[in-house]
Amino acid sequence: MDDMVFKIKADFLKALSHPIRLQVIEYLKDGEASVGKLVNVLGVEQSNLSRHLAILREMGILHARQEKTTVYYSIHDHDIFKVLRSIAEILRKKLSKSEKLLQKLGKEKT
Asked: Known SUPFAM superfamilies for this protein (predicted)?
């Protein structure tokens, strides 16, 4: 049972592990957008974007609705931004430690 829980968590995190997918999520933070709009804003091929959108939709991160021939995407659960904020904070701390180390290295006399 525990193995299945870890697999589900890993699959969810894997869905977040591509820069285009993160860009899509961030862009949709303020509301829904059509696939065409996302293609224009992100500057990616529609077929490439469609694969990424499908992954995010399958993981329950995005919601899709169709209006005639246009498909619109939106964030399914805004709690995803809590996850992304936590990741950003971890990365900020890591960067801060690296900066402090670099400053110390810069002050050493050779």
From this structure: Winged helix' DNA-binding domain
Amino acid making up residue 80: I
> Range of 85's domain?
79-110
pLDDT digit of tens for each residue in the chain (110 aa)? 689 999 999 999 999 999 999 999 999 999 999 999 999 999 999 999 999 999 999 999 999 999 999 999 999 999 999 999 999 999 999 888 888 878 888 776 55
In a 10 Å sphere around its CB, with 0-12 CB exposed, 13-18 middle and 19+ buried, how is residue 95 labelled?
A: exposed
Compute the distance between CA of residue 42 and CA of residue 44 in angstroms, rounded to an integer. 6
